[in-house]
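Incident review: delayed structure delivery

Summary: a single-chain prediction request sat in the queue longer than the usual turnaround. Root cause was a stuck worker, restarted by the on-call engineer. No data loss occurred. The affected request and its eventual output are reproduced below so the record is complete for anyone auditing the incident later.

Affected input:
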Amino acid sequence: MSEKVMNDTVAWVEAIANYRGRNAEWAKAAVERSVSVPSEKALELGVIDLVASDLPELLQKLDGRTVRLENETVVLRTAGAAYEYSELNESQKILNTLANPNIAVLLLLMGLVLLGYELTHPGLWIPGIAGLISLLLAALALRMLPTNYAAILLIVAGIGLFLAELKFTSYGLLTLAGAICLFFGALALFQQPKPFIGASVGIVAGIVATVTLLVALLTFLVARAQLHPSQVGVESYVGQCAEVIVDLSPRGKVFFNGTYWDAVSRTPVARGGKVRIVALEGMVLQVEPADGNAPNSDPKAASG
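Output delivered after worker restart:
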């Protein structure tokens, strides 16, 4: 694939050089071997038309030159032409920053990871809010770039495989598949239809490697917790109270001992209620309403 892209680019550059009367051999070498020369040498090689130190000198040297357009030839009259500088306003500067393909990829991946984590661990809020903001900014950036939406599906599939690894132990197979989807999806995100617009391979590789390592670390910690319970012993959990973070109806989440836990209660308990731990099955707490904590308590219902 890379050889095909290289050959297409070389042919495209050679065609432009020949059409514009430039040095086609040097243009080909610039693409294939990344050669570069100073401005004076470029003028000598016929790569450029002229060298100017500032805008007034450029306008002076352009005056009287003939430019061939698609259907006509135009003589430039630029001597003494008026000009003015226009600066970007603040909103344009922000949009210009977002239009950087590397920034767009980072926002998209970060948003999907954070939002996916919030969906699999509801009740934390901060990852969900940060992920939503990142995705909105990424959507704004993608509107300004030649986006390949099939690549977005590949990226979403990669994030989904990462999240699946946290739920189902696959000994790294899901993580590996997710990393592959993420890497190639990010690289292909901006390659159509303009081949020179795309995220840096190094930056994409760094992002994918970071996400992969984090997922691998989380998977390891979860597996270790399941195989080797804390030294305090499961028995010490029984009888202690936890706070309901996500409604238990019957499954939800509770906050206990500085950690968010999946929990199940036979009796529904609303968020904010207190429950008592009666057992621990795997990594899921079995709980019941604590004393004085009426299930699904509603003051209006009670008064009625």
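Verification: Residues 2-75 form one domain.
Action items: add queue-age alerting; document worker restart procedure.
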